[in-house]
Amino acid sequence: MVGSSDRTSDRTQAEDLAIDPVLFTFAVVATIVTLGLLVVYVRAELRARDAKRTSAAMPAADPAAREAIAHVGNALAATHDTSGLLPVILDATVEATGAAGGRVLDDDRELARVGEAVGEEPIELDLGESPSGGEIRLVVDPPEGGLSPESSALAEWLASQASIALENARLHQVVREQAVTDELTGLVNRRRFVEALETEIARADRLGSPLAILFADLDDFKRINDRCGHPAGDEVLRTFADLLRRHLRGIDTAARMGGEEFAVLLPGTTMEGAVAVAERIRAGLEEREIMRKEVGFGLTTSIGVVQYGSGSSDGLIGRADAALYRATAEGKNRVIAEVGS
Question: Which of 158, 174, 232, 246 is the most buried (most CB within 10 A)?
């Protein structure tokens, strides 16, 4: 039998070994904070090492290098347009290296030129892929006697920095287009349509020029999705988007507003002209047949047409939506023109 003194001793040892919840929580938090600070420190050290490596790679002793890259950097800050950056990159490289001239080529197509070649062997530097899928090259024409090793190294370094700037500009353009483009159809989205509409309303107010918009809805679209599946529905949406592009001018704007609803902005167009465009779109879709798994089915659209007289973009969109509702309610596959201001 264990004595009471032994039990008391065991209980005391157990209590000594028990972990205080508050102290335990504090210890865990302290450990996490310590690890976090360690990660921050390591990342800072890596960034510092990369900065030193980049600085060592740049011919920093030459003031022309710093001036040239600052010139390119300022241009990048001012524009993300690749075509606007290329002449700046070319000018900066030729000036910094003392070259006789240079060119920027997209494959064999010349995009920019400065100076003239004097017969020395040119230096070709890769600037990356062009928006058209070709290869952009910077061709540097050395002065008589050629470029010094320092100038050649500077040209290569500037080209490497320029390729980064051009890639950043390309990615910026991709992101910007994705923000205003419907991914499925390639048409602009509602946001971009409203922006364009507000611009054209301001122009119409200033110049007194006509302006009209169409709102179109694909009839019984849900039935297509239910019977044939969403891939068939996506094909229908793309088909209608292609039809809109074929019937519109370069100054017109076609948008997918959401779901199976589309809109068209027609600058400089009267009500009569807009109704004619809408009828061509309606008839063009009615004549088409979509084949899906060897089964064909027809498509129709209802379209509302309005002309701008005065008011806001929201008011004009509301009128177009009301005209579209009437076209749908009165039997579908028709064009309804809403007269008013």
Answer: 158
